[in-house]
Amino acid sequence: MLCSYQIEGSTDVDGRGPSIWDTFCAIPGKIADGSSGVVACDSYKRTKEDIALLKELGAKCYRFSISWSRVIPLGGRNDPINQAGIDHYRQFVDDLLEAGITPFITLFHWDLPDALDKRYGGLLNKEEFTADFENYARLMFKSIPKCKHWITFNEPWCSAINGYNLGIFAPGHTSDRNKSPVGDSAREPWIVGHNILIAHGKAVKVYREEFKPTQGGEIGITLNGDATYPWDPEDPADIEACDRKIEFAISWFADPIYFGDYPASMRKQLGERLPTFTEEEVALVKGSNDFYGMNHYTANYIKHRKGTPPEDDFLGNLETLFYDKNGNCIGPETQSFWLRPNAQGFRNLLNWLSKRYNYPKIYVTENGTSLKGESDLPLEQALEDDFRCKYFHDYVHAMAKAVEEDGVNVKGYMAWSLLDNFEWADGYVTRFGVTYVDYKDNCKRYPKKSARQMKPLFDSLIKKAEVEAAEAAKPAPAVAEEQAEEADA
Ligand code: GBH
Q1: Element of type H or E holding 315
Q2: Which of 140, 188, 204, 338 would be 288's cystine partner, CB 3.0–4.6 Å?
Q3: Does 108 sit in the ligand 1 pocket, CB within 6 Å?
């Protein structure tokens, strides 16, 4: 499962226009290794090879995102369409289906056409952005009728917070004038989040009214969120802060989608800086998920904070920590400062979401890990990624328990990611792939141990479930005997 800017490369091929990420990467100091997505995994030119790899590994579905500026180079509803871009994705979907792999398409994985940012402030401009997104979404639904699973936005939290509060993602807005000449960390993220929700609602309405009746597919949004544990399990304020952390990360978007308004905890802290929904907007957004797309990687201990939070706080007046009060560690280090494996947290969060949103159908749309120092290893050693194997084993088993024992409704699982790829502000040093990409040797692909593990991992779980179902179906011998005795008497 992969994102256009992170894998495609070929940024100026076949009429593609620049996205905000092309512009952002060109600013010195923004990307750790000074790199960009110009080559990435070269996947734009290697679709056949990547599909063969997916097939070889036994993948049943593949989630990828479309580069908006490939299909409408300038992005807007009155701008020219680029047929070559559309044809590329149509062909890719045809080829996936031909190989027996179900496509899941994400319309927006952070790479806004740069022209829209320059023209009217991009995600900050509600009228223009939502109208342009609706137009782009309609074009894709119409152009790729064979795709039956659509995701509007990937992780709007990241677009809003990383892009408009921290300034670490494109377009790099922040109040910190050492980092950016523009931005208001206390206000812009909440406006951007709101506009994304409206744009999502508009695209879903278009799909349901104009395409779903004939195409029969489904549509939803993908949200990111980490699991939480109280720093002090005895302290009610930490326990409360655990919920608040998830509300600020996930319910910010999921509450409007399932209930029609923002969480009370956010309104309380942010006041008028958090936009309000008009009646018309509620009608668009409420009930706009056919499924919940869940991206999940890690967990934190949560310690509440006292007093008034700073205006640019986006966490919910709390601290996120790797150690709790008693010195317990959340999980081992990885290459990503924010990621430490904790599989139980996955099961907990699946339960939290299911209870709050009434057991929606869930697709896990991302789950995976980086490895500390993986890029320093020689190729042969990097392929023996036991740490990643254990991660997938533990997380997938935790998910299976949530389904079997807790009644959570997970209907699909997509690992992040098929290939090592451009890891945004971290550049190419941090690797998430089950396949090693040798950037020094023409992006040659080498499946790691974890790649070979995925199919057997799921096969064994499916087998186990089948055996259990068969057991449950036949009458237990003891009961049968009892019944016989009863009949005798
Ligand atoms: C995903 O996002 C992306 O969808 C994908 O493109 C990327 O390659 C992949 O993960 C691996 O990074 O400490 O409160 O500031 C990652 C999700 C969510 C991770 C926010 C970092 C920081 C939370 N990100 N999180 S906080």
Answers
A1: none
A2: 204
A3: no
Q: For the residues of 173-194, what is the DSSP string, one character each?
A: --S-TTT-SS--TTTHHHHHHH
Yes or no: say if 200 and 287 are a contact pair by the CB < 8 Å rule. no
Q: In what order do the strands lie in the sheet with 227-230?
A: 227-230, 299-304, 318-321
Give me the chain's average pLDDT, please.
96
- Which two three-digit tokens encode residue 393? 């084993």
Please check whether residue 257 is in contact with residue 220, taking contact to mean a CB–CB distance below 8 angstroms: no
Catalytic pick among 8, 155, 281, 374? 155
CB-CB contact of 364 with 392 (8 Å): no
What confidence tens digit (pLDDT) does each residue in 101-143 have? 999 999 999 999 999 999 999 999 999 999 999 999 999 999 9
User: In angstroms, what is the span from residue 116 Cα to ligand 1's centroid?
Assistant: 24
Largest CA distance in the chain: 89
Written as one string, the DSSP assignment of 342-386 is: -HHHHHHHHHHHHHHTTS--EEEEE-----TTGGGS-HHHHT--H
